[in-house]
Fold this protein.
Amino acid sequence: MMTQLTNHPAWKALNDHHHEMRDLSLREELAHEGRFSDLSRVACGILFDFSKHLANKETINLLVDLAHAAKVDEMRAKMFAGVKINNTEDRAVLHTACRAPETAEVVVDDENIIPFVHQVLSQMEDFTHAVRSGEHKGYTDEAITDVVNIGIGGSDLGPRFVVEALQEDGSGPKVHFVSNVDGQDIASVLKKLKPETTLFVIASKTFATEETMLNAQMAKDWLLKSATTDAIPKHFVALSTNAKGVKDFGISLSNMFPFRDWVGGRYSLWSAIGLSISLAVGFDNFRKLLDGAHDMDQHFQNAEPKDNVPLLMGMLGVWYRNFYNYSAHLLLPYDVRMDKMAKFIQQMDMESNGKAVDREGHHMSYATGPLIFGEPGTDSQHSFMQWVHQSADVVPVDFMICKEPHHALAANHASLCANFLAQSRALALGQTLEEAKGDPSRVFTGNRPSTSIVLPKLSPYHLGALIAAYEHKVFVQGVVWGVNSFDQPGVELGKKLAKPIKEILEGRTPNAGMDSSTSHLINVLMPR
Amino acid sequence: MMTQLTNHPAWKALNDHHHEMRDLSLREELAHEGRFSDLSRVACGILFDFSKHLANKETINLLVDLAHAAKVDEMRAKMFAGVKINNTEDRAVLHTACRAPETAEVVVDDENIIPFVHQVLSQMEDFTHAVRSGEHKGYTDEAITDVVNIGIGGSDLGPRFVVEALQEDGSGPKVHFVSNVDGQDIASVLKKLKPETTLFVIASKTFATEETMLNAQMAKDWLLKSATTDAIPKHFVALSTNAKGVKDFGISLSNMFPFRDWVGGRYSLWSAIGLSISLAVGFDNFRKLLDGAHDMDQHFQNAEPKDNVPLLMGMLGVWYRNFYNYSAHLLLPYDVRMDKMAKFIQQMDMESNGKAVDREGHHMSYATGPLIFGEPGTDSQHSFMQWVHQSADVVPVDFMICKEPHHALAANHASLCANFLAQSRALALGQTLEEAKGDPSRVFTGNRPSTSIVLPKLSPYHLGALIAAYEHKVFVQGVVWGVNSFDQPGVELGKKLAKPIKEILEGRTPNAGMDSSTSHLINVLMPR
């Protein structure tokens, strides 16, 4: 709905409602027994408790009105149907097609892409089986014990998060991740491995990403210290769209797993980019991850707006970002296996909606995507939670926990659950001067909002559903704010400016034409 | 300077100056050749380039005036002298004494504490030597190969960051870290280890921290599956002040490394809490870490205000937080070994200055500590940097890099340096519509400030100096805002509320007296 957003009656109604809500006390609201059932929802077996938000049923109705006015439903239908909603790059947005059943039909440029999706899935299934069974052998005829995923950004964070989250389902080779161009990253991984039992998965859509290709080259050099070039096809596979680049590198095209331009990097773990997940936990578990995500897709498309979890998550974010002016959002999984979740969602959300202009190229007059951060609880309670409780800035929180742990330590799990519950309760209710026994430094204002999310357990299915819920949340917000959530011009600017600086640092051009700071810093950093 | 802060002439002068600076263009400023030398500083061999800030010499002068008006120098003298500036807990603040030379004298409660500091350092040196040489043996007479540090918050994040940062100096046993009460944390570490060659370092000031004691108990149970209780003194040491608790656990008092209440958790890596650092990299390297920090202490105490790096870092933070209303601060080390830096500084800064009331107990009318976040570059360029370049929210950045890497991969390092330089340049200069060839989605406003920090290399000495610079930065800001940076009432509220919930979850009391949300969530999470 773009530039007229703040002039729309649905926006104005929320503005009026926001003024009425100024006196809302969560302590009073939560004293009503019915509040939990009024404001909690279930999707794909996951509980989302919205009852600790600065919201009531009226708020939900008005937020749903705004979503409708912003044509979220229309845009959602376009996305699932393969319309090219990534307008600056003229691309469809179809990570959802990667998890659609074989019977589905999604047409892009006159082709039903579902057979392609399932053909790649078959290729992944066969290769996963070959590696995990030991049938695929290295150049000394030994089985593969270690996999190194070399990719960056979207080709790294999704698989890295999921492989760690599903560690208890890990039964195949150990999977390592290398992303950074800092040579230390690959050096410290390689020194633990043996070339004859290591498989490199090179993940780069273009097969030209600077970091990834430098690291892939290093990996090849390392292999070739002990092997001949015949070994390359046994130790390297590619997740890419660039067949020529893959072939030139020495990788067999039968070991190239393709994907298409309708899968964006930060939404790509469901595509060929998920190969390292499949290798780590087995293809059946990878399939369950896709199934969970697909069920959340169905929920997002079919549930009534007032019961639609990704829609509500997204609209509550708009409520806080634009009406309360809260500028950040915190993720707190009470589960160490979800250590990388905040890092992964940080990319998904901030790269998608951290934009300055709307889809029509107008500079926006309102704030868009928030700053996303987070760490697992209870660690964070001994770190930045002091700030979350008492800072001048209020930050809405998503608390997450699994009802069933994968271990048998009952005392630990009871303590984890108690802390999970105590933090959201403390944020909502605060502590009065009387409760603080007259000590003003222990007064907490309360009224700090949060969602509590309870997964039955950290199964591939539930993890897939949870990730898809966040993807759709980001989508909903992008539509309301009128941004294209699927491009990333800021990434390209950095690449453009790095090129001439690298030429100077490598002595290929003189240090000229730079600003005062850059020019002097180049002198400092120039190798002697 | 407390409640009168915003009425002070120095504050008002900055306010006026802020209005004058509204039209400042970093693109124009950085075109002047002299800007780098005017606005960059060196401390302990580390370069801090402040020339890409929304500041000129006049800004620096006015910020120094405000620091003086807020009596930063007076408070600094009190801190170093052992005055009890942690007023709510009636404690001195003397992490600086942990790195002072033997000849120093710092008196607390009529005792010169320096001999105590050096006695503990000797004890750490001897024990480190015994473990690393193999002289200290496990219950089967084998040497120690693995150390597990069990602690949380301040007893975890500092050592965890430093051990990883100095990984290239690692030559002793492999050090692992367990912090979270989630049983998965310790379970996944223990399954890689053998009890007969594992040493547990239990880090808890009170020896009563819930998470730490649950995990320590699990470690003991694990050892006692294969050993008798005689083995405990060989496999457990304690970093604590609670001799009775340590003895009751079965740890020999000669293996208890003490510290005192004048070392706060988030400032404690220089004390006995640093034992796991010393075990990982050797005592000589630990000593160099202390030396670097001590040299930064000297710089902070003696350098002229306009050349005083921690003072300038702190005051530039005040400038952005209170005059520009920027609410977050980003740390971007271009070095994968510094992966945990943001997490560590996040605790140090947010737990220290994320407060609602000043030292006199008055609710503050101005914002205090910012939200701290970060990840290593270049990874972050493929993640949230899009948002940093184009979001409505401006976030000042600290970029960090080492001139000399620890590896020999020249192409990787040149690429790393080029990207490091390109990002701060892109943030400062932006990209005009003309440079973007008329595409509005590629327009960047620029004027986004950053500090570039260049370390000669990631040596223990320079790392110690860098950490101390951040400690003093946080101190300076706390003094200006008038908060006690050394307590953490928000941590205690969570503990207080968790207790009754845990009793309900364990079936010891009925589910009564809770709010609607908590009560229903307890029912969901109750074990069947």
Summary: The domain at 99-285 of chain A is CATH 3.40.50.10490 (Rossmann fold). The first helix of chain A runs from residue 9 to 20.
